[in-house]
Amino acid sequence: MKAYRASLLTFDAAGQPRFDTDGLLLTQPDEHGTERVLASGAHAELAHWLALPQAQGVQVQHWPGKVMVPGFVDMHVHYPQVDVIGSPADGLLPWLENYTFPQETRFADAAHATEVASVFTDELLRHGVTTALTFATSHPTAVDAVFAAARTRGMRLITGLCLMDQNAPDGLRNPPSAPGRGDAAEHSLLQSQALIERWHGVDRLGYAITPRFVPTCSDAQLQGAGELAARHPSVWVQSHVAENRDEIAWVRQLHPHARSYLDVYHRFGLLRERAVYAHCIYLDGDDRALMRETGTAAAVSPTSNLFLGSGFFDFAAAQTTGYRHGLASDVGGGTSFSPFETMKAAYFVGRMGLEQGGAFKPGLSLSPSRLWWLHTAGAAQALGLEGVVGNLTPGCEADFVLIDPQATPLLARRTAAARTLDEWLFALIVLGDDRAVEKVCLALPTMTG
Ligand code: GUN
Ligand code: ZN
Questions:
Q1: Which residues fall inside 5 Å of ion ligand 2, going by CB?
Q2: Residues of the chain with pLDDT under 70
Q3: Which of 123, 177, 344, 374 fits 187 for a cystine, CB–CB 3.0-4.6 Å?
Q4: Structural contact between residues 80 and 161, judged by C-beta atoms closer than 8 angstroms
Q5: Nearest CA to ligand 1 atom 11
Q6: Fold of 2-70+391-441
């Protein structure tokens, strides 16, 4: 058994926060060696556990003035885009063509992929992100590289081979199995199948079938991806949808018979539980209902949507419809790995009103505990990992972040003046960054020790 004492933030099943000023977190390893939460709550209520025989000799790690919070969950990020962050462009499509695709082409080189995967996983952990659903590139060795980097560090990571057999440059487009053969779609799906067998369920790793987005995927590839998803229900699906107006016009040209962009994925069997679509800005009421009915989740990426000028996610409609959604950095369209930056940008976006059908719909004020939930327990729920990560209630894997509310002079001053939990959380969201992440504890001991 391990025991940690500090302030403690957890969420109940309804997503409401619980804060124990003097909290205790008790963990013990399961049969696979993963530390799981045994009990968590007020020290005064749980201290008797420390008198139990199995607690004999347990040293309580005590961090007065610090706060244990669940590890953050990034629902959508691109590891090969570490070196694309902050590349300005006139919107998504020129950004992809001029910066992103050329960078991703470099991942044919396994040594480059390994170096970037190491930087990427270190950056996530440094910012308190302990679970991530990430894109890789269309090169199988690049998928291996990021799985290996996450495994060495003991973090939870989900990724997959990027499916893109059209409208992409040589060297990035999925190649056929041999020169001159026209079976790139089939070959990419066989490669995906082999990667599922190699990585899905190994330690804390999971596989995601990853059609990049409709314009870069042939019908045969989308069809095959849907069939693969049906054969592997525990595997994730990830893609992009309804991010940018030019992108949507392109999809309409390519698929004139589909009711909407989202409907293209639906027709190919790609909407289901554990399917995660980044952006979801330009959805209509029917699309949102389809998201809910199929159990599909949206990865809301506010810093990316602001940086690329894509638009504003409709938080009010998502909440009213009741479909799954959570927060994501979307680095390198997104500008930061920091969950604080992402939560802050989500707040700004929520505040914006939206023009709808000629009428103005006022914005809403997402509460700080709601923002925090959307990046921890809510994001985990959207990924189908409720009760596994994103929280510190009994049974959860014990990934946690130790926050120092005094990391900067202004943060110390503002958090000290907070009168309520919401005020305190808001101060951290607005003023916090990686300096407030004092320590990150993962549930799985790392292979490097
Ligand atoms: N749509 C297709 N590919 C991408 C990508 O890499 N980033 C973003 N933001 N949107 C995409
Ligand atoms: Zn993305």
A1: 278, 330
A2: 446-449
A3: 177
A4: no
A5: 240
A6: Urease, subunit C; domain 1 (2.30.40)
